[in-house]
Amino acid sequence: MTSAVFTEKLGGPIDIGWTSLRNIQEVMAILNYPQMSGAPRMSNFNKAKYQTSRQLAAAILNTGFGTAAPRINWKGTEMSIIEAARLALRIGNIDDIRYIGNVLDEFNNSGKDEWLPDWKPECWNAANPKLAVELGIAGWNRVKP
Fold first, then answer.
1. I want to staple 69 with a disulfide (CB 3.0 to 4.6 A). Which of 78, 80, 90, 95 is the partner?
2. How many angstroms separate the most distant Cα atoms in the chain?
């Protein structure tokens, strides 16, 4: 499913602020980094960065299904939570990264799954966590801290 949204709906790279995820392997590396065998111990900053990056990638994939990202007032400017997360990750303030990560987590777990009526992925398969981690390992070298 994630692969279908990435390739068919989003059509390419996902901007997560500090880097772009260029292929499904890199997307899976971000989404599955806690399960990656041999993943290095991370500093508190990198933990916050990766947790928020994971939430941001999930939010972008969710919007690929037509679920609109809510808008918030971020530092005096109204913007979508996706724009705010990209900005926070680019700037690199740990408190901002943690805050927006929590906002993204609420959005991703809100249960608002609004499927696009004109699109069903061609490969509608059950989730395969083992394959997701294997794909993630292939993309890990470019997105690791």
1. 80
2. 44
Tokens 């068919």 correspond to 8
Cβ atoms 69, 63 nearer than 8 A: yes
Residue 122 DSSP code: S
Give pLDDT tens digits for 44-75.
898 899 899 999 998 888 877 556 778 888 78
Backbone angles phi, psi at 115, to 5 degrees: -75, 140
pTM above 0.85, yes or no: no
Contact 64, 9 (CB under 8 A): yes
Residue type, 144: K
Q: Is the dihedral of CA 15, 21, 23, 28 positive or negative?
A: negative
Q: How far apart are the first and last CA of the chain?
A: 27
Q: Is the dihedral of CA 71, 110, 115, 25 positive or negative?
A: positive
